[in-house]
């Protein structure tokens, strides 16, 4: 790929190239990405408009991803035998596309048709007990035999057991692994062979670009993909305040089923699951319990992906509106709905001002549709 036009021609439609460039630019997250496309129609037009919008937000124009960076990423993905999958494309997972925070683009390897199956996430403790790992392995195997795809995060413990159970002897491979690194990075290192088996027989999915090592902030993002892909999430073992409970919360916020396996009250690793059941999660003892729980939603998976749903963004906002909304913000996260209520402005006006602040580097977005002023705010 000698230049940008060659890269775009080789890659396919130039709009897909521009979309990748947009999401790889600084200060662009899923929400701002979708809002920019909704407002300007094309990624190319959105890229051109970013400097002016950032200026309105009181900040400097963010760094736009350079063409050579996108060329390099495309070459790396192709060399790895993977591909980019954008929201709105037919193979993009239907349920994941429904999230407001859906990743605009995924990097995937494997049999994408497996994602048409009803998906069940199985997650749990990294330092899981032998009994819990055996249970997770058997549960995943039985769900795969019943036509489900088992989704997990390839972590030690329960995740590993779930992937192994769904893979069986490598025949069928009805499992999807969502990793927090680039698709070419094995983490934890001892799961390198398992990760490759999943890429060969199942589906391997990454949001990060090739070559990127997993960082702490990547894991909550990975967890939202696990929760978003699945009709329901099963927690097998989880200590209080564990990452698995974050996944359960994200699943609940997305309107998906949350299921948990009960454990001994004397085992700290069972406290999270027992608390979930106490708070309304479905108690799970076998694959039949899972199938009965997810059955009402299973038909929804067969619906074709309708693509992303962009929040309304006005053509502009007045200086008075900008000041009023900015003054309502602080360093403590607050919901966007609360900003709309307190400001009295149309949701589209609030969305516009928040977009401008984010592009200017003055706004941070948090889980649950909350926002706050950033360090530069």
Describe the structure concisely.
The protein has 377 residues and is an alpha/beta fold.
What does this protein look like?
The chain is of the alpha/beta class. The chain has 3 domains: 4-93, no CATH class; 107-301, Rossmann fold (3-Layer(aba) Sandwich); 319-373, Winged helix-like DNA-binding domain superfamily/Winged helix DNA-binding domain (Arc Repressor Mutant, subunit A, Orthogonal Bundle), CATH 1.10.10. The chain has helices at residues 4-11, 14-23, 30-40, 43-56, 67-79, 94-97, 130-145, 158-167, 192-201, 218-229, 243-253, 271-278, 287-301, 319-328, 336-343, 347-359, and strands at residues 83-86, 105-110, 119-123, 149-152, 175-179, 203-206, 232-235, 257-260, 282-283, 334-335, 363-366, 370-373. The strands form 2 sheets. A 9-stranded mixed beta sheet has the order 1-2-6-5-4-3-7-8-9, sandwiched between helices. Helix 1 (4-11) runs parallel beside helix 5, helix 2 packs parallel to helix 4 and helix 8 runs parallel beside helix 9. The chain starts with a helix and ends with a strand. This is DNA-protecting protein DprA. One of its GO terms (biological process) is DNA-mediated transformation. Residues 310-369 form the DprA winged helix domain. InterPro entries: DprA, DprA_WH, DrpA_SLOG, WH-like_DNA-bd_sf. Belongs to the DprA/Smf family.
């Amino acid at each position: 790929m000698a230049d940008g036009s060659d890269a775009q021609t080789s890659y396919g439609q130039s709009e897909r190239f521009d979309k990748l460039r947009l999401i790889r630019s600084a200060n662009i997250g899923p929400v701002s990405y979708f809002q920019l496309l909704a407002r300007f129609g094309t990624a190319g037009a959105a890229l051109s408009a970013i400097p002016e919008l950032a200026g309105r937000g009181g900040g400097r124009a963010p760094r736009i991803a350079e063409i050579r960076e996108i060329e390099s990423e495309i070459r790396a993905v192709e060399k790895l035998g993977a591909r980019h999958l954008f929201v709105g494309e037919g193979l993009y997972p239907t349920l994941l596309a429904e999230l407001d925070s859906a990743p605009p683009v995924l990097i995937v390897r494997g049999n994408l048709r497996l994602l048409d199956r009803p998906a069940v996430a199985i997650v749990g403790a990294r330092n899981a007990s032998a009994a819990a790992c055996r249970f997770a392995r058997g549960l995943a195997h039985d769900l795969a035999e019943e036509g489900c795809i088992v989704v997990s995060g390839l972590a030690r413990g329960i995740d590993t057991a779930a992937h192994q159970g769904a893979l069986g002897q490598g025949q069928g491979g009805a499992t999807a692994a969502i990793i927090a690194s680039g698709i070419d990075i094995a983490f934890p290192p001892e799961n390198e062979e398992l990760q490759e088996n999943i890429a060969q027989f199942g589906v391997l999915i990454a949001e990060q670009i090739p070559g990127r090592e997993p960082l702490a902030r990547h894991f909550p993002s990975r967890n939202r993909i696990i929760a978003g892909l699945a009709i329901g999430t099963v927690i097998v073992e989880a200590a209080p305040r564990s990452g698995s409970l974050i996944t359960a919360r994200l699943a609940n916020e997305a309107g998906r089923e949350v299921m948990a396996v009960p454990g001994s009250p004397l085992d700290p690793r069972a406290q999270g699951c027992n608390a979930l059941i106490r708070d309304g999660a479905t108690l799970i003892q076998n694959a039949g319990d899972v199938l009965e729980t997810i059955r009402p939603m299973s038909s929804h998976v067969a619906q074709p992906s309708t693509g992303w749903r962009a929040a309304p963004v006005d053509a502009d906002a007045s200086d008075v509106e900008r000041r009023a909304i900015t003054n309502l913000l602080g360093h403590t996260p607050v919901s966007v709905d609360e900003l709309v209520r307190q400001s009295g402005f149309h949701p589209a006006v609030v969305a516009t001002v928040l977009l401008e602040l984010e592009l200017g580097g003055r706004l941070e977005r948090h889980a649950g549709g909350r926002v706050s002023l950033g360090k530069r705010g």
